[in-house]
Amino acid sequence: MTFSTTLQPVRAVPHQVTRAAVITHGLAVTIGDGLARLAQVAERFGVELVVPEIELRKHNLHDGPWRVMEEDESTDGADLIVVLGGDGTTLRALHRSLDNGVPVFAVNYGRVGFLTTAPAAELEQALSRAFSGDYCVVPLPTVDVRREGERCGLGVNDAVITSALHGRMAHFQWSVNGVDLGEIGCDAVVISTPSGSTAYSLSAGGPVLGWGLDGLVVTFVAPHSLTARSLVLPRGHVIVIQNRGEGTAARIVLDGQVVERVLQEVKITRKT
What we know:
Strand order of the largest sheet: 4-3-2-5-6-7
Oligomer: single chain
Radius of gyration: 20 Å
Strand content: 35-45%
Distance between the termini: 20 Å
């Protein structure tokens, strides 16, 4: 099983892999001999392995079957993105596939591995099947965040609206489909997909959404309220968050990465 974000149509019929882009855990030591094991499988199946420059430096890959991805080169030419890492690394890879839908196949070298495809102990067996084309693609929904009509970005797991000043409570006015739901003080608002409902939203007390549910969940982090509860919404609903904090800017964080630091209003919907 592989995952793909779906801005572009997902390839309906998997086929034998001839080129794979490789992305690894931020700490090189975490994956041990994973790259060597990957290289052996790739050689057996005649798969070209392409790595970004940062991976070459991280692992000192001066020998072996590695081709370096050019600075401006994307993963467009790859049949598969192979991840050796955990959920954070897998999210980075999924963001690389947002524009082209290249499937992501992740071998778990992390702590949880909710988004990964196979455990590290089964690397050879799992990648042998993947490289031969024996896999299915599971499309993942994304959270679409727009400011003043322009897209700020997409979140595979979640979009978080929070105070731009660390330690300062945010004050947000929020509405769904034009229905005003009031003002609330909180540390943040988390809008997550079903796959992201087991991440930050869960930590803040939100419900777990089963994979395949066609919706989003809105969860408040540390709300200054006795009545704030998570809200599960189906596809098509538009969530509007307005910053009401006097003198306190807000920011947007997508999958743990800050993408916008000053905002007054954002609109959030489920994409695909």
